Amino acid sequence: MYFIILLVYWFVFKYYDPIGLENATKSASSQFFSAITEPFYGYGQGDRTQSHVAVVEISDETLKAEQETWPVSYHREAYWLRHIIEAHPAAVLVDIYFDGERQGDSLHAFDSVLAEAKELGIPIFFVRGMATELAHDLPPVLAPYQVYSGWETEKSNMYPLLVSAPQDKGKKYPTPAFAMYSTLCEGAWKNACKAGEEFEEPLFVRWGVYTDPLQKIAFDGESGECRDSHAGGLARLFRAVNTGAHALSGKWEPPEDNRCFYALTLDAARLDALSPLTKQPYTDMLRNRAVFFGGDLQAIHDVTTAPAIGQVPAVQLHAMAFDNLITYGAGYFHEASRFGEFHIFGHAIELDNAEALELGIWMLLSLVLVRASLSDTQQGAEHSGTPTHDERKAAFPQQPESAQPQTAPSPLSGLKKIRIKYLVAAALAVSGFLYDSFCRGYFSLTVLIFYVLLFLTMICMPVEFETQTYTMKIRQTLCVCSLVYCVNELFLHLPNADWIGLALLWFTVPEVNEENSFVKSTDKFISEKFPCLKKQR
User: Fold this and answer.
1) Per-residue pLDDT reduced to its tens digit, 53-70
2) Which has the closest alpha carbon to 177: 140, 202, 142?
3) How many domains does the chain divide into?
4) Which residues contact 456 (CB under 8 A, 6 or more apart)?
5) What is the pLDDT of residues 371-393, one digit of tens each?
6) What is the DSSP letter of 514?
7) Which of 266, 267, 253 minimizes the C-alpha distance to 305?
8) Which residue, 17, 22, 126, 532, shows the most beta carbons closer than 10 Å to its own?
């Protein structure tokens, strides 16, 4: 009976969420875990990351320096694009709005630039907009190069790789980042990535917070209060802990004007200039990189929100999604695939793999804990010949705790055992950190062993600690978070919001020994009203 009540509780908590507790908690927890993960993105990847990506931005400072107004003339945009092409990038994506022909300003200004890109063998794409009937195709000059961008998703930081077009719903078309990735993997970068890999589920974008080492050149030697990717393990760990602590306290807010982007970012006004540091054109930094050319303007406000960073222009989102594909390949973090659909009382319930795994693990652990608790209670009563806790409470409701028989603790029991376990766990934690510092690999089997040991330490604590303090539940919840978080980073690669529910639901499981708990109270009520079901408990 207890198991059935837990199952109903999970169902109501998961799908009906009466006061929005689960959605709010999962969203906040997902943001928190994303924030503490970001400092480690790209750590230990060497030249596989950052050096492959660059962003060229048209900002308000660009318009001021060029004495232009928005919208910029097509001739000026073609001029900037020509400088990008002449830098011999690996591929170019243009994320700029084109509203058709203008009086005295023709889109044919791009003809010679597109011809030059074709001659040099440089793939080029232009962003069209959402794949809906309301969004029009790009003008004929640019239509052959268009890719769809813009989508509706319930989860933040989700980046679909393929979308259906309104004119051909049976066919999937690549979105900007995936179009760049698949094209380069089939051509210039075929030795660095595999074009035949399976990419179906939307990508969960992991954001980096440390800039490209060449960003100092783009800033003319100034750091701009940005740290580059040469930051070591201690610096990254401190930033993660600091961000996490502020996020938990509710005091942390993303900066309003953050220029510390993960991808190398160059202002369009410098495309025809020389760097005072290197005495070479700024465009030299774009060579052999996938270049994303777009706007970062207050007038268009085409932005997205990144955890622990704040609002970033959409062109940075495309660049970051592309970098995720280069970094992880087919093992990218993705939305959980569909497990199945069930019909209950006329309502269709969709279950994805993450939710199915969450339900299975949670119910298994619930059964184990319930059976263990009932077994301990029965064995204790049989061996001692004394009534159970419930029977004693019914017979002697006013009996003080001091009158109850005391058992002498063993030399190595209780807190002493726990201290030893914590010392071993701490030793493994230090070993894991040192291993990662030398090998520059954030997650390792050593860290996984540490999390597993921490998990076992919490679970194996004496029952009396669990019943005396509510803090024990929080500690167990943090332990499960650590374990599942590590397993997810190593193997599952699911969004944090998809598995955090497991830890939240786990928070209700240890209540089996609490007299006034929701589940146990419900179980007792049903047993009293329906005695025939009592044996099934």
Assistant:
1) 999 999 999 999 888 888
2) 202
3) 2
4) 421
5) 666 666 666 556 555 555 555 54
6) -
7) 253
8) 126
